[in-house]
Amino acid sequence: MTDLTVYIAHPDYLGALCQELGDVSSVAGNLVFSTQEKRDICFASDIWFRAQIVKFESISEAVRILRAAGKYWFLNPVESIRRSHLIAEQLRKLPNLKQSFPISTPLPQIGCFSLLDKNTLVYAQERWKDPPLGDFQFIEDKENPPNRAYLKLWEALALYGCYPAQGETAIDLGASPGGWTYVMQSLGVNVTAVDKAPLEPRIAQLPNVTFLKQSAFALNPANLKTAVDWLLCDVACYPERSYHLIMAWLNSGKAKRMIVTIKLQGATNLEVIGRFKAIPGARVIHLLQNKHEVTLLL
Ligand SMILES: C[S@@+](CC[C@H](N)C(=O)[O-])C[C@H]1O[C@@H](n2cnc3c(N)ncnc32)[C@H](O)[C@@H]1O
User: Which CATH fold would you assign to the domain 141-297?
Assistant: First the structure.
């Protein structure tokens, strides 16, 4: 039996994850094994801590091992797929993974397992994110938001550790057509949306939404009279510009919390991401809802 950390890779970012980790023992499917436990890994969709690798002979033996180690198990199929499913079928039925936003009842602890071959099981009960593989399965709102960007902010807020409170304030830079503005407004936040392009009219008309049609970079935070509770930024721009914008807000002390997407250009550049990771208190994560971009939580 060994004790390892397993990092879950998004299929498009396996190379970036391995490069970011540096110390990789082996790779199997979406599982990246390392002897190093690192928690600030941007390209890990989830992390399995203290993972166990054990040999087993029969399906019933694998079931016994898993049942003894935890209540709920999610199968991440890698090898011996049919055998993996036969094991999963004999385990306790998983709770419903669909969640409404904001999440009021966290999921129970759910372990994850894979077969590495027909006689080798890897499993972990202790993981980073609540949902298996870090895959938040929100009950979607198909009526109110103007686009699917709201899911990105839902995921970011679920990982942030606290939700905006009624009556708080937010500035949403690069807000149009208004998915993020809609999310904050729906939580009772007073939102100032800033964009060069217009908000969708039905979002602009919502109570507690103010729209400023201007560049996000023309807004000097130092000129604000009071700090905002939340600074959101989803502006389509080069990472360098995002970095300067974040630093200007940080130095002004006018944003209590920040959620900023950093749009990546071409090949994934870990040096660029490293600059954002080095900002004290920042967490940089490739969200499941992120395409070629990462999200900074501060
Ligand atoms: C990905 S979209 C934002 C989507 C938005 N978060 C939502 O939930 O609907 C990027 C936005 O950045 C805006 N943008 C680009 N450059 C900008 C600038 N200099 N100032 C303000 N907004 C800008 C674009 O007009 C576009 O609306």
Answer: Rossmann fold (3.40.50)
In 90-238, which residue ranges form alpha helices assigned H by DSSP? 149-160, 179-186, 201-204
- Of 110, 113, 81, the closest CA to residue 96 belongs to 110
In the reported structure, the alpha carbon of residue 219 is separated from the centroid of ligand 1 by a whole-number distance in angstroms of 14
Other Cβ atoms less than 10 A from the Cβ of 21: the count is 20
CATH 3.40.50.150 in the chain, residues?
Answer: 141-297
Q: Which two tokens stand for residue 288?
A: 């499941």
The tokens describing 57, both together, are 């002979």
Q: What is the pLDDT of residues 95-104, one digit of tens each?
A: 999 999 999 9
* Nearest atom within ligand 1 for CA of residue 176: 27
CA of 181, closest atom in ligand 1: 8
Q: Whose CA is nearest to atom 5 of ligand 1?
A: 175
Q: pTM of the entire structure?
A: 0.96
Element (DSSP H or E) covering residue 283? strand 283-285
Largest CA distance in the chain: 68
**CB-count exposure of residue 94 (10 Å: 0-12, 13-18, 19+):** middle
Q: Which residues of the chain have pLDDT under 50?
A: 1
2-134: in CATH 3.30.2130 = yes
Query: Rounded to the nearest whole angstrom, what is the distance from the C-alpha of residue 46 to the centroid of ligand 1?
Result: 29
269 vs 248: CA distance, rounded Å? 23
Q: Which residues line ligand 1 (CB under 6 A)?
A: 147, 149, 174-180, 194-197, 215-217, 234-237
In whole angstroms, give the CA distance from residue 88 to residue 62.
10
The CB density around residue 262, as the number of other CB atoms within 10 Å, is: 23
